[in-house]
Amino acid sequence: MYNVREIRERIGDMVVKPFSDRGQEVIHDGRSHVTEIWEDGEVTTTKAGDLYGNRRLHGSEPPFLPTANPRLPTLWEVPEDHDHRRMVVVDREALEILAEYRELTIDEELLEHLQETGYTDDS
């Protein structure tokens, strides 16, 4: 199982909410695309500028955190009125950090056992 709290702390200052002042600054700084990280670890890119949020997402890395079980932690909390929560990458080092965790081998049988017994790392 991943230590989601550790991942969150390591990438904390490298990602921002899209509609924060810093997020809007990155989205409108003249680049053609913006890189985003989702609550399950998926990495996508989408158009920047005035087209942000109005075009298709292009996946570059698949999710690596299970989101089917709401008791398991995600990189950040998803508001009840949203299906997903994404953050804009302001420092590409965040992608390198996530790549470290993607390389870890997770014992799916052990994870399934922990889910069945109600274990989470939030305690």
Strand order of the largest sheet: 1-5-2-3-4
Along the chain, the helix and strand elements come as: HEHEEEEHH
Q: State the end-to-end distance.
A: 14 Å
Low-confidence stretches: none
- Rounded radius of gyration (Å): 15 Å
Strand content: 15-25%
Mean pLDDT: 86
Q: Main β-sheet, in a few words?
A: 5 strands, antiparallel
- Name the helicity range: 25-40%
Instruction: Please state the overall shape, judged from the principal axes of the Cα atoms.
Output: elongated
3D structure, described in words:
The protein is an alpha+beta fold. It has one domain (4-116). 28% of the residues lie in helices and 17% in strands. The chain contains 4 helices and 5 strands; from the N terminus they run αβαββββαα. It has helices at residues 4-11, 21-27, 93-102, 108-116; strands at 15-16, 33-38, 43-47, 58-61, 86-89. A 5-stranded antiparallel sheet has the order 1-5-2-3-4, with helices on one face. The longest helix is centred in the C-terminal third of the chain and has 10 residues, at 93-102. The protein is elongated. The relative contact order is 0.23. The mean pLDDT is 86.
Q: How are the SSEs ordered, and which strands pair?
A:
Elements: H1 4-11, E1 15-16, H2 21-27, E2 33-38, E3 43-47, E4 58-61, E5 86-89, H3 93-102, H4 108-116
Antiparallel strand pairs: 1-5, 2-3, 2-5, 3-4
Quick overview of this protein structure:
The protein is of the alpha+beta class and 123 residues long. Helix content is 28%, strand content 17%.
Question: What key attributes describe this structure?
Answer:
28% helix; alpha+beta; 4 helices; five-stranded antiparallel beta sheet; 123 residues; elongated
